[in-house]
Amino acid sequence: xxxxxxxxxxxxxxxxxxxxxxxxxxxxxxxxxxxxxxxxxxxxxxxxxxxxxxxxxxxxxxxxxxxxxxxxxxxxxxxxxxxxxxxxxxxxxxxxxxxxxxxxxxxxxxxxxxxxxxxxxxxxxxxxxxxxxxxxxxxxxxxxxxxxxxxxxxxxxxxxxxxxxxxxxxxxxxxxxxxxxxxxxxxxxxxxxxxxxxxxxxxxxxxxxxxxxxxxxxxxxxxxxxxxxxxxxxxxxxxxxxxxxxxxxxxxxxxxxxxxxxxxxxxxxxxxxxxxxxxxxxxxxxxxxxxxxxxxxxxxxxxxxxxxxxxxxxxx
Length: 316
Hints:
The chain is mostly helical. The chain has helices at 24-45, 56-79, 88-91, 101-119, 123-148, 174-187, 194-200, 205-211, 221-243, 250-266, 282-304, and strands spanning 5-6, 162-163, 217-218.
């Protein structure tokens, strides 16, 4: 028997009072936007981008708000939780989690098109630089998912499997939740719901030990995604951008293709968080369209064979 790691991270960085305070989920976005600003500034100063260094801060701020946040949230609602439309206020509660990477990509795609038109710069060139830094945002986001114990993986018996208490919140695991409640009440009578168990497990070691025989070992799929969609994809795109010369739009296409392939693969290790579509998870189904979009960008970029003239000479 492996002593599987029990996930008991506190989603709060620290508590100001009660359940109020900065969360790791929010910190992930701060780090993503900070890294994005820095790397886009580097690319602009080196002459890879038609975006002027002085414009980077303005671009990243509005892209974060209207592209990532708005697009990601609306994508989550429309693609995964359309029932939230019946309670519009729930859409605004972003601090509870619930963002779609596919929705965020669509939002960024629309925003960058508008921004390039507004400022008279090349849309494909703007996209080629932006997609290089996007994987770092995905990296931080997936780490935040891991800390939150959400979007966990499928059942497995590999030695690095982990136990995620949030599986007790899934209606499919009602029997496990009942067993967990019985065990938890013997430790703390105040624990009368699966939500209370999840919120308390990081502060009560005895509770975790009681849940070990009940929880099921699962793939830490959030870590898989952070490494593949994040670090591997970022490293690949950075090398392509800085070591080769590609027509405008090609690197954007490579991002979409790479992300789609990696997401489809990782979804086989991730517990589906919504009903399947034609036998595929929602993440896989939408990634097929992302893959097709990527191929279109590469083909059109190669046919046009245009390389935007840099505004600045590359620094040594």
